[in-house]
Specification:
CATH architecture of the largest domain: Roll
Largest sheet: 6 strands, antiparallel
CATH superfamily of the largest domain: Ferrous iron transport protein A (FeoA)
Shape: elongated
Number of domains: 2
Organism: Vagococcus silagei
GO molecular function: transition metal ion binding
Keywords: Iron
InterPro entries: Fe-transptr_FeoA-like, FeoA, FeoA_core_dom, Transcriptional_repressor_C
Pfam family, one: FeoA
Radius of gyration: 18 Å
Oligomer: single chain
Length: about 160
Amino acid sequence: MESLMSCSVNHMYEFVGFTGTESEEQHLRHLGLTEGTILHIIAKPDQQSLIIFFRQTRLGLDASIADKIKVVPKGVSALSSAIPLSETSIGQTTRVVKLLGTGSVKRRLMDMGLTKGTVITVRKYAPMGDPIEVTVRNYELTLRKAEAEMILVEKGGA
């Protein structure tokens, strides 16, 4: 178990506890940070703050709070090399790493066959980049750019 402030960027951790005051802990719970929550550290702009991503929420924390958040490593994140589907080039084959959407948006993407590990090949981009035509599970699918930005992929999915 280590403090969140001592963790590395682009890695995932599981929240296991908090050593601060009851009011600080309650505030974090209201934000959705509960035991078992998976955190992804997005950035550490300096040694006094960091930005984390959990439950479709980005949160900036200063060192005084981050030092009190206790986590365990969730392994080296595949997200470190992941890029949004909208940033891939035509003809590129990728594999889904994570869906960032929530609720009905995530469910809709999953209903279309976009689940973790699915191979996607980008076929065409419209002139302004929206929509994007892809091949998923041997059928053609058209996605809006906003939807494609919610799909994190890694290169070389074939």
